[in-house]
């Protein structure tokens, strides 16, 4: 069942208390059709008899031809009435082996009936017949027919078919009726023996399958090469089927097509393409230029949005790199857009400023100035856009291991708005541990990635630096039949650099990881890139071919830019600091990453994971919305960190928040473990001059910190503790962090974005709704002669609560409090 989706809650009453108002719990009334008891019972019985009669005939047919059969049961579709509810939870009874495989209710608002697919073991064929008989003949103490809601909610019962299992429901046209294609077969169990049964079934029926699988709670996802006949065979003969989906095609599928067929795929996508009107969101790509002539780019790139740092270079793409970035920045995953027939809506445009010369390279000392001037050109052309800037150009020669450079300093200065007070969201690639030019036998995964540092300007404090992970592990190229992918599914990409060897005083990079492709290795040790393990994008010479492949951290940065644009489109009033916070806040590590880099669960090991994979892979759903059992609150505010008093310069402001909290709902969960995540994002102004960059306090204009009250700590005591910490210049070495924080204060407080996860009982969290934001020393205070000691600093604070219990609503109570607040001044 799909969960209700809600927008994040932006808090406008900053630093003030909101009195709790307990809402009344509203239980929605079930929409059950009115039935004639006897007639309806007889009709449902006849439908069940018809299903089982057909099952018996098919079973006899399989026996007659000695067909292998591991199933002893039947899949049925139970449909509700149009515009009504189906009591599908009552269709499952795990004790008797009756399993609810899937529920399709996506179109209920369009008055489409809810459909549930259920597996019934053969020895339980009388289970629902008994319920229908009880409905017809027995009455409860309240005078209602027994099983009334369940039976009367059922409109029809049919034998399940391929469409019953196919997901998503809007993409039925992707079912492989005429020719074989790779499909995801979702099994309804996570047990090893069930997966082994499926492999044995495939072997017995000559069904080609991949040996890789993904395991979720109660689900296993396998890949098989199927058509209509094979899928029907699985439905008729295998008892652990939950869903079927089209497997994601690898880039090789499209790359192997002749250009005329590639053009056909392009035309199909263009027919489904919708561009949101009046969108002010854009992605500005600083690279080799973009070829606007590509049909998939043309609708999203206006001629007036193309420029060049040096007008003699022209605006078009000379190398193809910028056009590849454009395809991914526009579509996110071009493969996913191509292989469905679902409409594709784009909510942003793209811009291009060419920063790479057609021949040769830019002088290194000019890169900072080139980027500043190029972004300025885009802003002059369109000053009112909500812009994401994507830069996938790096310099590997910087070996300072996190120490700022003139280039990264320029990025920090530009993003902080130091000169014009305009904050900017800038996304950088981390740089590549492996390129086509340096693939050799000396590369050892992942050891080489741990020693190959993030490239300049990826050490920028304010920009989002993007490393790479990979989900690409399927190789279909027959020439690489003996090759295996280097990284397993969900692991760090072989291309990604890290900050594992940096001095601990510098920011942790990368911030996040996105898909960047994989490498293949032969039995002889030879390493190769290939289309299968890369991402599909737009080729800069469409007269030759429509598609090209892209990988490495450039690809990851483009995907992150697309991701950021989606959030901006959803929350156009959010600050760049907030968009950055939501991206990091939504990220988490895959199980494969944890297995790869965590030897145990202590803070030191998690910090090592952080320096390798950043905060992990961002979740699009978490970044843009909440569900009833999760809650995200956002504060956008500013404070003045420092002040002058009697010719002495001291820290000045701090903020205390008493957040609207679902206290009663948390108390009701008692000892259930819940999760609180907090992310604080702000932009520092970089220190003037190289001499200041030897000390992080001198490089950053200021720092901000967050603290959470203890469950037993009252407001006045909390304020006193924060005040003391705010006056301690070196408080991070003295503060004892709670074991309930994943990283702890000492480990998380690097750079200018701080994110941490608190885990504990719901009862403990119920009283932890006080948050303090306070400043720590920076050069604004230390260099008084520069007259910046009285500047204000913006920040965004994102706070989320997550409960594993899906039937608890922690969102609605807070939403009600925010809409009807009672303001109480916090004592000073």
The gyration radius over C-alpha positions equals 29 Å
| Uncertain parts | 16-26, 729-736, 822-828
How big a fraction of the residues is strand?
15-25%
Let me know the number of strands: 37
Distance between the termini: 48 Å
SS-based structural class?
A: alpha/beta
Q: How much helix, percentage-wise, in residues?
A: 25-40%
Please report the number of helical segments. Answer: 25
Question: Strands of the biggest beta sheet: in what spatial order?
Answer: 14-16-13-17-18-19-21
Biggest sheet features: 7 strands, parallel
What integer is the average pLDDT? 87
What form results from the Cα inertia axes? globular
Structural features, described:
- The structure is a single chain.
- This protein is α/β, with parallel strands linked by helices.
- It is 28% helix and 23% strand.
- The strands form eleven sheets. Strands 14-16-13-17-18-19-21 form a seven-stranded parallel β-sheet, sandwiched between helices. Strands 1-28-36-32-34 form a five-stranded mixed β-sheet, with helices on both faces. A five-stranded mixed β-sheet has the order 7-11-8-10-9.
- Strand 24 (535-538) and strand 25 form a beta hairpin.
- Helix 1 (37-64) runs antiparallel to helix 2 (127-137), helix 9 runs parallel beside helix 14 (552-570) and helix 14 (552-570) crosses helix 15.
- The radius of gyration is 29 Å and the shape is globular.
- Residues 16-26, 729-736 and 822-828 have low confidence and may be disordered.
């Amino acid at each position: 069942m799909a969960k209700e989706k809600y927008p994040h809650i932006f808090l406008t009453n900053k630093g003030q208390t909101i009195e709790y108002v307990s809402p009344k719990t509203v239980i929605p009334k079930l929409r059950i059709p009115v039935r004639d008891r006897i007639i309806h019972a007889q009709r449902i019985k006849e439908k069940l008899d018809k299903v089982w009669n057909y099952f018996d005939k098919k079973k006899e047919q399989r026996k007659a031809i000695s067909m292998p059969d591991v199933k002893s049961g039947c899949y049925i579709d139970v449909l509700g009435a149009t515009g009504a509810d189906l009591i599908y939870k009552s269709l499952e009874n795990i004790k008797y082996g009756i399993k609810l495989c899937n529920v399709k209710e996506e179109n209920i608002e369009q008055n489409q009936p809810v459909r549930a697919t259920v597996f019934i073991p053969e020895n339980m064929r009388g289970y629902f017949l008994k319920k229908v008989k009880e409905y017809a003949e027995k009455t409860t103490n309240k005078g209602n027919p027994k099983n009334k809601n369940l039976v009367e909610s059922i409109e029809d019962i049919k034998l399940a078919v391929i469409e019953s299992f196919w997901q998503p429901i809007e993409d039925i046209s992707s079912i492989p009726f005429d020719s074989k294609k790779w499909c995801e077969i979702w099994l309804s169990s996570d047990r090893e023996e069930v997966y082994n049964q499926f492999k044995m079934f495939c072997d017995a029926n000559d069904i080609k399958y991949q040996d890789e699988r993904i395991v979720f709670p109660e689900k296993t996802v396998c890949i098989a090469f199927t058509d209509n006949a094979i899928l029907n065979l699985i439905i008729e003969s295998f008892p652990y089927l939950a869903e079927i989906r089209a497997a994601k095609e690898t880039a090789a599928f499209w790359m192997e097509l002749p250009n005329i067929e590639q053009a056909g795929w392009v035309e199909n996508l263009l027919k489904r393409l919708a561009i949101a009107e009046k969108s002010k969101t854009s992605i500005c790509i600083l690279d080799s230029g973009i070829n606007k002539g590509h049909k998939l780019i043309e609708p999203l790139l206006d001629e007036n949005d193309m420029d060049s740092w040096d007008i003699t270079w022209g605006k078009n793409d000379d190398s193809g790199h910028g056009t590849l970035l454009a395809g991914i920045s526009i579509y996110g995953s071009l493969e996913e857009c191509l292989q469905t027939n679902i409409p594709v809506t784009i909510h942003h445009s793209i811009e291009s400023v060419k920063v790479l010369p057609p021949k040769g390279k830019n002088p290194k000392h000019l890169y900072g100035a080139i980027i500043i001037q190029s972004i300025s050109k885009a802003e002059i052309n369109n000053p009112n856009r909500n812009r994401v800037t994507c830069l996938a150009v790096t310099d590997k020669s910087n070996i300072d291991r996190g120490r700022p450079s003139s280039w990264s300093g320029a990025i920090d200065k530009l993003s902080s708005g130091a000169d014009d007070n305009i904050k900017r969201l800038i996304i950088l690639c981390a740089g590549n541990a492996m390129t086509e030019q340096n693939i050799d036998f000396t590369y050892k995964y992942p050891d080489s990635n741990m020693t190959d540092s993030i490239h300049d300007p990826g050490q920028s404090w304010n920009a989002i630096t993007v490393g790479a992970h990979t989900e690409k592990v399927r190789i279909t190229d027959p020439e690489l039949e003996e090759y295996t992918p280097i990284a397993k599914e969900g692991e760090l990409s072989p291309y990604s650099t890290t900050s594992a060897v940096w001095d601990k005083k510098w920011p942790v990079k990368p911030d996040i990881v996105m898909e960047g492709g994989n490498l293949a290795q032969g039995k002889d040790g030879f390493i190769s890139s290939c289309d299968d393990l890369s991402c599909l994008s737009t080729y800069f010479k469409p007269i030759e071919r429509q598609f090209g492949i892209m990988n490495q951290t450039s690809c990851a940065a483009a995907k992150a830019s697309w991701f950021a644009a989606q959030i901006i489109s959803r929350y156009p009033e959010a600050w760049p600091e907030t968009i950055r916070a939501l991206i990091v806040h939504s990220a988490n590590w895959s199980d494969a990453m944890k297995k790869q880099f965590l030897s145990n669960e202590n803070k030191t090991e998690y910090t090592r994971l952080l320096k390798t994979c950043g905060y992990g892979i961002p979740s699009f759903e978490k970044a843009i919305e909440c569900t009833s059992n999760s809650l995200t609150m956002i504060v956008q505010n500013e404070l003045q960190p420092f002040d002058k008093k009697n010719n002495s310069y001291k820290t000045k402001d701090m903020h205390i928040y008493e957040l609207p909290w679902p206290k009663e709902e948390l108390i009701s969960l008692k000892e259930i473990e819940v999760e609180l995540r907090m992310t604080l994002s702000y932009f520092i102004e970089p220190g003037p001059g190289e001499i200041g960059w030897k000390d992080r306090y001198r490089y950053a204009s200021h720092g901000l910190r967050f603290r959470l009250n203890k469950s037993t700590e009252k407001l006045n005591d909390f304020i006193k503790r924060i005040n003391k910490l705010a006056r301690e210049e070196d408080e991070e070495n003295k503060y004892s962090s709670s074991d309930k924080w994943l990283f702890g204060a000492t480990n998380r407080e690097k750079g200018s974005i701080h994110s941490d996860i608190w885990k504990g009982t719901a009862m403990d969290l119920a009283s932890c709704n006080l948050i303090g934001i306070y400043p720590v020393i920076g050069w604004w205070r230390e260099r008084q002669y520069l007259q910046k000691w009285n500047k204000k600093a913006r920040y965004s604070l994102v706070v989320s609560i997550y409960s594993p219990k899906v039937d608890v609503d922690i969102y609605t109570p807070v939403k009600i409090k925010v809409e009807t607040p009672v303001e109480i001044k916090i004592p000073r």
